[in-house]
Design a protein that fits this description.
The complex is a heterodimer of chains A (about 220) and B (about 220).
Chain A (H helix, E strand, L loop, with lengths): L5 H24 L13 H29 L2 H33 L7 H22 L3 H29 L19 H33 L1
Helix pairs in contact in A: 1-6, 2-3, 2-5, 2-6, 3-4, 3-5, 3-6, 4-5
Chain B lengths: L1 H15 L1 H20 L4 H32 L3 H6 L5 H30 L8 H25 L6 H12 L1 H15 L4 H29 L3
Classes of the chains: A mainly alpha (about 220), B mainly alpha (about 220).
């Protein structure tokens, strides 16, 4: 697989670091989305695109799981594991940026907001997923089990979201993109940051994917 | 085939009385600990009681599921039936029904001391409580059987079941607790039927999912 080589990984890593720096610069210099919260509100520029990508990555874990169980090609197992690892890293970012923003907005770090709570529960399920992959049995077995847990976790998402939403109906006032912000349409800004983050994710996935394949070749 | 597998588990349990006895004693012990730890006003304990009840049910279910699937690991019983022309999906449904019977039976045994120890007033419909217990327990065992099947060959099986089950079953914990709380507060079923719907959806989704993927989990 000539595309997945050390040189390409290094080039991508370099571009990813540069894009991250640009990202941080954009976020710091932009006007706060909500004047009352000042600079703390700026974390939203990172929080929202990171959330989109994390859920997208977990969705891809499910797709990889379905493909692996139907086609039985190990490439889908490597993809699933790479998506899960990078997705969990981004889930951790959601769980860090969310409370940092929640403190000035709601007055406490953990407001049991449905989307944040869903992220926490998914994060915990995926920690179990990694433990299963480590202690679940032989390589061929854990690939199948991992695929099933990846699908199971995403099937659980709507059930977790709606049960948390109904559980605390007073949390319905959570900020919605479009209604919460003072300044005009922030969607283009989100899209720019989302694109930068997507590139960072792709380069991270490529490294992880290559490591996974090298590891398997080493075992065999 | 389905009936044969259920009867097999029931016959083994009837001879050994191992699963129900251990679940009952464990449930009783946890109830006692809760009753001793929560020395608060009767009005307050009434608010806590539904949550405590479902914590006890969740813990005892883990114990029961662990034992129920260990039967398949002892003496390599799993390999005996998986070598034959048996639909693994049917085996999964049989396991869900057996687990449901065992957990409901142990609930019937420890729910009386639960009400006695916590001094809870019985001012609600037994039929409605039975309905909540049936659907809620069904939701727990449907996903629990799937996770027990996945972790059957795992070296850290005892740890992996709760690690994967508790976050996955969190919508069940929320919905079942809410249903029971509203029932204890003598609210009519129309006020909590949507919680029952979440429990029912969970039960159906994960039973069907388990039925579809169990042949991928149990492969020779």
């Amino acid at each position: 697989m000539p595309f997945f080589n050390h040189r390409n990984n290094l080039i991508h890593a370099g571009i990813a670091v540069a894009l991250s720096a640009i990202n941080i610069f954009i976020v710091i210099t932009l006007d706060p989305p909500n004047a009352a919260q000042g600079i703390f509100g700026n974390i939203f520029y990172i929080h929202v695109p990171v959330s989109w990508t994390a859920f997208l990555l977990y969705f891809m874990v499910m797709i990889s799981g379905i493909m692996f169980l139907t086609k039985k090609e190990s490439i889908w197992d490597h993809r699933g594991l790479a998506f899960a690892e990078v997705g969990t890293l981004f889930m951790f970012l959601i769980l860090t940026t969310g409370p940092i923003w929640a403190k000035p907005a709601w007055g406490h770090f953990w407001p049991w907001e449905p989307r944040l709570t869903t992220s926490l529960i998914l994060f915990l399920i995926f920690l179990g997923y990694f433990m299963l992959r480590e202690f679940g049995g032989n390589t061929e077995q854990v690939s199948r089990y991992g695929a099933v847990v990846g699908i199971l976790a995403f099937l659980d998402v709507p059930l977790i979201f709606f049960s948390v939403k109904f559980w605390l109906p007073e949390m319905q006032s959570h900020p919605q993109v479009g209604s919460y912000f003072d300044s005009g349409n922030l969607f283009p800004t989100f899209l720019v940051i989302f694109s930068l983050i997507t590139f960072i994710i792709i380069s991270t996935l490529m490294v992880r994917f290559r490591v996974s394949i090298l590891k398997q070749n080493n075992i065999n | 085939m389905l009936v044969h597998f259920i009867l097999k588990d029931l016959k083994i349990e009837l001879r050994s009385k191992e699963i129900i006895t251990s679940m009952f004693i464990f449930g009783l012990s946890v109830t006692l600990i809760f009753a001793l730890a929560f020395q608060v006003a009767p009005a307050m304990i009434r608010e806590f009681a539904p949550g405590l009840l479902w914590v006890v049910i969740l813990f005892t279910s883990v114990l029961g599921l662990n034992r129920l699937f260990s039967l398949e690991r002892d003496e390599h019983a799993l390999w005996s039936w998986s070598a034959g022309p048996v639909d693994r999906g049917t085996v999964f449904i049989a396991k869900v029904i057996s687990a449901l019977i065992f957990v409901i039976f142990s609930e019937i045994l420890f729910i009386i001391p639960f009400f006695v120890f916590l001094n809870l007033p019985i001012e609600f419909s037994f039929f409605q409580l039975g309905l909540i217990l049936f659907v809620g327990t069904g939701a727990i065992v449907s996903v629990g059987c799937l996770i027990s099947g996945i972790t059957l060959q795992a070296s850290q099986r005892d740890v992996l079941i709760p690690i994967l089950l508790f976050p996955t079953a969190s919508p069940v914990a929320i919905a079942a607790t809410k249903c029971t709380q509203l029932l204890f507060n003598q609210k009519s079923i129309t006020e909590w039927n949507y919680w029952l719907l979440i429990l029912g959806s969970f039960f159906v989704i994960f039973t069907l999912f388990g039925y579809l993927v169990f042949n991928k989990i149990v492969e020779e």
